[in-house]
Amino acid sequence: MFQTCLLLGFLSPSPSEMLLLVLIALLLYGGDLPKVARSWGKSLAELRKGLSGIQNEFNEAIYEVPRQISYHESEYNNPQYDGPTYSEPDYSGRESVVNSTLDSVPSPADESTVVQTPSLDIVDDTPVTRPEST
């Protein structure tokens, strides 16, 4: 507690220091001091508005979520709700799709569709030469 009071006393200017700051501001800004003060006031108001908006978002996130999650006994004791329903999937038309697909696939007994693959035991002993780069 004493340290906080000491820190606040250290940071707050005395009346003579505040008068010195006002005189320096008058010398630096002169006639433009009202404009400078007005712009400072607007900037400070916008900063406070932005900070309060952020604070409101945090408060909504903290306090609204538990309200949404809270248990309402009336919702769970509702006699209109009978539980999840399950129905069998509809497979009608599936057999015709499978049969038409099988009809379009050639049979393996057909000699014209058999592809001959070359033998892989052929070894070529000729050296490989790289083309010269230009």
TrEMBL record:
The keyword Transmembrane helix applies. It is found in: Membrane. The chain crosses the membrane at residues 6-29. One of its GO terms (biological process) is protein transport. Keywords: Membrane, Protein transport, Translocation, Transmembrane, Transmembrane helix, Transport. Residues 74-134 are annotated as: Disordered. It is a single-pass membrane protein. It comes from the Bacteria. The keyword RNA-binding does not apply. It holds the Pfam family TatA_B_E. InterPro entries: TatA/B/E. GO terms for cellular component: membrane. This is Sec-independent protein translocase protein TatB.
